[in-house]
Amino acid sequence: MTQVILLEDEKKMTIFNLAQSAGSIAQALESGDWRPPEGVAQRLDLADMCLLEMPNFLVVLPKDYHWKVQPLHGEGDEPALSPRQREVLQALAEGFTTKQIAYRLGISQRTVMAHIQATKERFGTYTRAQTVSRAQSLGLIQTQ
Questions:
Q1: CATH 1.10.10.10 region(s) of the chain?
Q2: What does pTM read for this prediction?
Q3: Which residues contact 6 (CB under 8 A, 6 or more apart)?
């Protein structure tokens, strides 16, 4: 099972799971044979897309996408994310919605959104997918 995050632009993201391996999806995308599931971003020109491949996880994004990166550590050696922010990020990486994360952690949806926004600001990212990808690349959360 592979989790796919499809970034159409800085404001639109779709997350879905596919039974194929990340490698087989990546090969099909690179050869032009892959299409998103029906009803998902049918208007995209996949020739203008690129991908970030990790085991069991793919991010498909526009080739001209610009990443904004900021350091994760503040002064000293203290990590820049709280334990709760890491829990919220982990749940996002597992595909949970804001409502599901709130229920799972016993906090309000508004608090979940505040943690997500604070993490986006800390990472200098614009979307949830960028934030999850950044956290994974830094080893702050695990993929399954």
A1: 83-137
A2: 0.48
A3: 13, 14, 15, 16, 36, 40, 41, 44, 60, 61
